[in-house]
Amino acid sequence: MSLTYTLNDTFGNGTVVPGVGVLLNNEMDDFSAVPGTANMFGLVQGEANAVRAGGRPLSSMTPTIVLEDGRPRFVLGSPGGATIPTTVLQVFLNAGPRGQPLAEAVAAPRFHHQHLPDRIEVETGAFPENVKAALREKGHVLEERSALGIVHAIAFERDGTLTGVADPRGYGAAAGP
Amino acid sequence: MRSRLVAGAAAALFLALAALSGRASMPLGEAPAARSKRGMVSAATRESVEAGARVLAEGGGAVDAAVSAAFVLAVTYPQAGNLAGGGFAVVRTAEGGFFALDFRETAPAATWRNTYLDAGGASRPQASRYGGLAVATPGTVRGLEALHRKFGRLPWGRTRNGARPRSPAQKVWPPALGPARRARDRARAGRVSRPSRPRSRARRRACPARPVSRSPGRSPFLSTGRTRRGGNASRATGSRGDTRGDRLAGCGRIPPRRGRPQDRGVRPRDRRSPHGGGPRRLRAVMADPVRVRLRPLSARDDAASLGGRLPSRVHPRAASIRARGHLVPRFGGGHPPDRRSRAPRIRRPEPLSRRPRLRGHAAGAAPRARPPRRTRLLDRPRAGHAVAGDAGRRVARRARSDDAPLQRDGGRRRRVGRTAAPCR
User: Fold this and answer.
1) Total domain count for chain B?
2) Do the Cβ atoms of A26 and B134 come within 8 Å?
3) Mean pLDDT within A78-105
4) Which of B10, B77, B322, B388 would suit a FRET pair with B121, their CA atoms being 20 to 30 Å apart?
């Protein structure tokens, strides 16, 4: 199984319930307060995600199970707000179609684009300098980021072994019994 | 078959971008990897992974491990691990069945279209990010419980034991589970979860023995497994079972409010504590998790067709508010509508079934008949809550047996199994 859960912002809304010690979320920012304006992640959203009582706000969380011929192949997920889908997709593409070992696929540099704002976010070292120069020449705006996502993933190898990987960008771990 | 581990459990966490920018060096090369044939956990902190792996070693399944890891993350990864947040989970069973759960937070019932706008209609981004207005009704504890109820192999208490720390360095975790247990118990009983209010000076004088700290900068956790303020994690302090005399003396917890949670949907803004003079009550309701129907996307699934299926009818409670002449929020699913209302029934996403397991969904087995279209409105697990049908009774019995250790932990029986009318 794959599970992703969140307080939205780091430490949620920054409030601890007195006497309980539980941090509260600030998930209401995931609604579009004014459809057409950007939220914390710069995402511009429409009427369907407008604030309404009882509603569930749009999310980018992407707990993922990848199957191959009906058999599980990868289990993966990541934090990162709007960058989650691109992060998870890149790790999958590295490990699946491109055949990298999962540990390499997770550690490989990543980039992100979310349509608005119109810029490519790249991890330092994600692209060679000549590629970056060529992209800029075409009119792309590049923004360097130290890290995109923290992927935790498990691969089901063909011999039945499970390989667990924790992203070196974070301080997580993987272990089996 | 059942003893075979279904899959590894990956509990990955969503956290905001700010935390990521702190790491300067770019990791390249290989990530650390672990190998096993018996199961695997990968998550955001070492402690949570250890807890999950221990649960797997004790015979738990992937869901048991993930639930344990998630509870530990609530303490060891407070940036994003949580009890008062929400999320998603996808599960593949050993038989090839699929299950997806949306336990995301929902907007409180008193949320309005203009809650985050100023008088001129402009956005107030701070309001939706910081402070009380930013909080959506949490879904994590109910979501984890729903997952465990459906797929768990070890009893809930065992999952907790799996998370039990072995070293003093990990001693921070237990208090987080106390509130979680109580919140779950209240949710099962259909009650509103309500943390105790901060103790007034008068109450502190009346009950001087309890440890009290109100300094905001200190951790609420003590290494003894209690919270600094004795009220909530301490087993010896008052609860709903307090005598009236206790309550009058100010030593007990706040007496329960009357009425059903949905009748208290909109709280008058300046209600004061019944004890007088205290700060406003804190109150939280837990969001219902909903099962997400999985199906392959097809070429016809363009944005318009997906958007066209979004429900936009008015919540029955909102309709009654409208009758009193107020603005009406639009309802998009999530809250249980008032059953007595004659307002049009709202189509929610597939509710969680009361069927305890998915094991019947073997690949190739005859498809199970769809449950009746009628939405089960109170689809929350309730101890001792009788429901129609064998499966329901099985769940009810199981809920009671799961609860037994909790009640012992509490040092007193807080709750007598209620037998309500069949949930129809």
Assistant:
1) 2
2) yes
3) 94
4) B322
Q: How far is A47 from chain B (nearest CA, A)?
A: 10
Look at strands A173-175 and A120-123 and give their pairing: unpaired
Residue of chain A nearest B14, judged by CA positions: A79
- What is the chain A residue with the closest CA to B311? A48
The residue in chain A having the minimum alpha-carbon distance to the alpha carbon of residue B21 is A146
Nearest-Cα distance to chain B for A67, in Å, is: 10
Query: Please, what is the average pLDDT of chain B?
Result: 56
For residue A11, which amino acid is it? F
Measured between CB atoms, which of B45, B219, B334 is closest to A55? B334
User: What ipTM does the predicted assembly reach?
Assistant: 0.95
The shortest C-alpha distance from A132 to chain B (Å) reads 17
Q: CA B174 to CA B152: how far, in whole Å? A: 21
Which pLDDT score, from 0 to 100, does residue B210 have? Answer: 34
CATH number at residue A91: 3.60.20.40
Better-scored residue on pLDDT, B138 or B170: B138
Residue type, A79: P
Per residue, the 3-state secondary structure of chain A, as one string, reads CEEEEECCCCCCCCCECCCCCCEECCHHHHCECCCCCECCCCCECCHHHECCCCCCCCCCCCCEEEEECCEEEEEEECCCHHHHHHHHHHHHHHHCCCCCCHHHHHHCCCEECCCCCCCEEEECCCCCHHHHHHHHHCCCCEEEECCCCCCEEEEECCCCCEEEEECCCCCCEEECC
Shared domain check, B148 and B264: no
Burial class from Cβ neighbours inside 10 Å (0-12, 13-18, 19+) for residue B120 reads: exposed
Structural domain includes residue B406: yes
Residues A130 and A70 both lie in one domain: yes
Chain B positions touching A152 (Cβ under 8 A) are 10-13, 42-44
Instruction: Give the pLDDT confidence of B8-53 residue by residue, as tens digits.
Output: 444 444 333 323 333 333 344 667 789 999 999 999 998 899 889 9
